[in-house]
Amino acid sequence: MKKGANMRIGILTGGGDAPGLNGVIRAVVRTSSIRYGWKVIGIFDGFEGLMGKTNTKELTPWNTRGILFRGGTILGTTNRGNPFAATVASKGKISEKDLSDSVVRNIKRLRLEALIVIGGDGSLNIANRFFNKGIKVIGVPKTIDNDLSATYVTFGFKTAVETATDALDKLHTTAESHHRVIVVEVMGRYAGWIALEAGIAGSADVILIPEIPYDMKQVCDKILERKKSDCKSSIVVVAEGARPIGGEMAVIEKDASGYALRLGGVGNAVAEGIRRSTGMDVRVTVLGHIQRGGSPCASDRILATRYGVKAVELIAEEKFGHMVSYQPPAVTSVPLEKAIQKMKLVAPDSELVAAAESVGVCFGR
Question: What class has domain 159-292?
Fold first, then answer.
């Protein structure tokens, strides 16, 4: 791959935001400039910045200074900007249209010789489709759910766990003061990693995750058992995608095909079940997007930096169609096509689940 000021690479962030995105952007910009003399073009609002009229800005070590410890993304993001199924309004009607060829033309018009896509499974799937259309793509994994199987951990996950753990620490004291059961709903659509790790770290009494459908009776029996043992308060951590045995996830919004766009309400459903069966005072706390916000923790800043550096190195090695992957102790890469094939879920019989059960945590089974 050539060096010098004539080389231009693009970078965008897609899907939900996560602590550490700015760290990746900063590392890409500094590595490109300092090691290779390349220019980096930031693309705003994910792939939307390449659809229709382009929305971009040249990024330099100067205008990206001071962003390592900032949450969010300076480039903006969206989880609805799919060029292969773009929402188009015409004559008062809304329809889907494939704008991918327009994106390819814009990439060429911007003279981008490579494109770094930072995102979760949805954004990386789109990136792989563009690679198959001839675009030189490098993927960087991002999801606070930590549900990508092709990497040991994703940046943003540890910060989300720390945020949830801090909330649980605070909720313990108010639950104890009022002899209440507090149900805490955390993120986790299909994978319960945040609920599991924060629940263990935050000394939760019950942890409900998508991978282990729960029996409401088991949950209530655990809480009543604690009450009889003079433990007058309990903490229940629920992943947003948790569901009862034989039941479905709590969905707020679906798209035209029936895909769940937004989840929510499982915390309230669990709380109501506990209230009916135990007669105890129950409160619900939904952490929501607080888990996505704020400054990344130290380990996420380091991982984000390593990911950004490796993404640029992959471009220099012309290893396109690959995703950066952390396989301790090294940061390496895997083919994008392989990276998006399988989700990383919590194994119900895993050592971590067994350890939690050994110290008295109930998973509703």
Answer: alpha beta
